[in-house]
Amino acid sequence: MCRNSKMGLLSTPHAAHEHLTAYKLEPHLEETRTSLSIKKFIEKSQTSRLVLLLFVLLGTSMVIGDGVLTPTMSVVSAVSGLRIKAPELHENYTVLISCIILVGLFALQHYGTHRVGFLFAPILISWLLCISGIGIYNTIMWNPGVVRALSPHYIYYFFKKAGKDGWSSLGGLVLCITGAEAMFADLGHFSNLSIRIAFTAVVYPCLVVAYMGEAAYLSKHRKDLQQSFFKALPEGVFWPVFVIATLATVVGSQAIISATFSIISQCRALGCFPRVRIVHTSNHIHGQIYIPEVNWLLMLSCLMVTIGFRDASMIGNAYGLAVITVMLVTSCLMFLVITTVWRRSVLVALLFTVTFGSLESLYLSASIAKVHHGGWLPLLISLIILMVMFTWHYGTVKKREFEQQNKVSLDRLLSVSPSLGLVRVPGVCLVYSNVTNGVPPMFAHFVTNFPAFHRVLIFLCLQTLTVPKVPLDERFLIGRIGPPDSGLFRCIVRYGYKDGRLESYELENQLLLRVAQFLQQEGGRGSSTNGAMSVISEPCTLVVGAPGGADGGPKRVQFKGVEAAAEEELSQEAWELMEEREAGVSYMMGHTHVVAHESSPFLKKLAIDGVYGFLRRNSRSSAVSLGIPHSSLVEVGTVYRV
């Protein structure tokens, strides 16, 4: 929604980014009056945009909370089947076995799924065929007439007879569809069509047959309500099914853990989550990532829930509430997507939202009734995650607002240069900031106290746009600032929220080659383009004709990791840029301390000085996240009073 309008508090598209192919929408209907009215209402109202962000973060935090509840629920429910064959086995032993499996599951995450991914499909196919086969056996063995339950009119008779108890049972029935809320994680590995075929032709029929067989068994064994799945197994297949069930829970848990890593990575890129380390576990599939800090926090949380609750039914109550909340939030947000992004009729949007939303609201009401029986857990987890995400985003927005309000114009800086006695030293300096025009306050503070900087100065801004990916040939936006002889440039490096960040050395190589290309293009036009920004595509291999060289012949400039695409002679200015690079490249960024203003209200001081300050002190620094070498780093200490 932020990609197509100004609905969110997230940074909206810069005018220079509008030509990106990622922003060009697919053919769509004309803007309707309804979509325009909704957009204008939300864009003009700060309160509505704030509520919308909180609503989105609520659903996001519930998905992250699923990363705690899904592995716990899956493993505990599978391991508890041991007590069917060994009734004398103490509950502590099943808890211990569950904890061992969970520790092993999270300990293997750093290896990535590509090493064992080939086992996932056979395990799940075996599991689905196994439960469907047992379902058919139980149906034939105990009550073939249960097939009539496929008729929808039994829904009416069920609620007519059960009354309030029928409504209350919906809080448990919702567990039949849990896992579907994490289906978005599959889109990184499979197509839409393959997922539809798999769920419609394989997963859904197998689950229906399995539940039908269990119902047939219970119709003759009403005392076996607890652990009915394992009790309904024929004697000879118990242990094989138990092993397959345990392996299937590990695979299912892996899916939601991967989904949690994925959504936290995207939240981090969009400024809604503290800086954490992203490890790419596969050289071929970008979506396979591992986040160490999140992995160990999830493991500790799973162990705490397993040891604290012990009972699978209480964990199930918590799990169901989290899942149905995610689904309801998604359905409500789809109303805005249908009307403002797809630009369909509001009646179509209402039909979709009312149809799915009413059903989900019914399940949600039954799940909320079980808050005191474990349902409070996802609310607590999501509240903590929501507070972290919103406070981090709020602090980041305030920090960027301060930088925009206190930036210094370049003309002013150059005008006071003679009085400061500025000295230009050899080399190139990349100045990291969030300011896309003007001079960041951090650099002005540095120059005022230490009047010297490098002969080539590049103000570098890394931006994450509201698109999944930015093509490599559209990533760098480069322009000159100041007079041609000042050696000052500005570069905006644009990423999508699914793009991986370039390491500092690779970024340095590609950036300087693109600046050299920019100078070549500028020289070809025969004029300076002060203030204009140009998109520089994939760089060429540059053959440098050294002016006044000893042998007079051209020299190839080698840059590791950049493929040769073409050859061209460097201009005088581009040659000087490469010479300065040989003198050394430094990196400069602010080491900021963000504090609330003394006159700020108490809640703002608590958010900025307390929560945001704590998160900044305990998250990875920008230099570490970007992989900048400490020996080349210059950090400028500043205090931002927001």
Written description of the protein model:
With 642 residues, the protein is an alpha/beta fold. The chain has helices at residues 33-44, 46-79, 82-85, 91-107, 120-142, 153-162, 164-173, 192-220, 228-231, 238-269, 292-309, 312-341, 346-368, 376-405, 410-415, 417-420, 441-449, 504-525, 572-583, 602-618, 622-626; strands spanning 279-280, 289-290, 423-432, 452-465, 476-480, 488-496, 533-536, 543-545, 554-556, 585-595, 633-641. The strands form 3 sheets. Strands 7-5-6-4-3-10-11 form a 7-stranded mixed sheet. Strands 1-2 form a two-stranded antiparallel ribbon. A hairpin with an 8-residue loop joins strand 1 and strand 2 (289-290). It is elongated. Mean pLDDT is 83; it is low at 538-568.
Total DSSP E strands = 11
Q: How large is the count of helical segments? A: 21
Indicate the structural class.
Answer: alpha/beta
Q: Major β-sheet, in short?
A: 7 strands, mixed
Query: Nearest-angstrom radius of gyration?
Result: 30 Å
**Strand content range:** 5-15%
Binned, the helix content reads 40-55%
Query: What's the N-to-C terminus distance?
Result: 28 Å
Largest sheet, order of strands side by side?
7-5-6-4-3-10-11
Q: Overall pLDDT, averaged?
A: 83
Query: Shape from CA axes?
Result: elongated
Offer a few descriptive terms.
642 residues, alpha/beta, seven-stranded mixed beta sheet, two-stranded antiparallel ribbon, elongated, potassium transport
Write a short abstract of this structure.
With 642 residues, the protein is α/β, with parallel strands linked by helices. 55% of the residues lie in helices and 11% in strands.
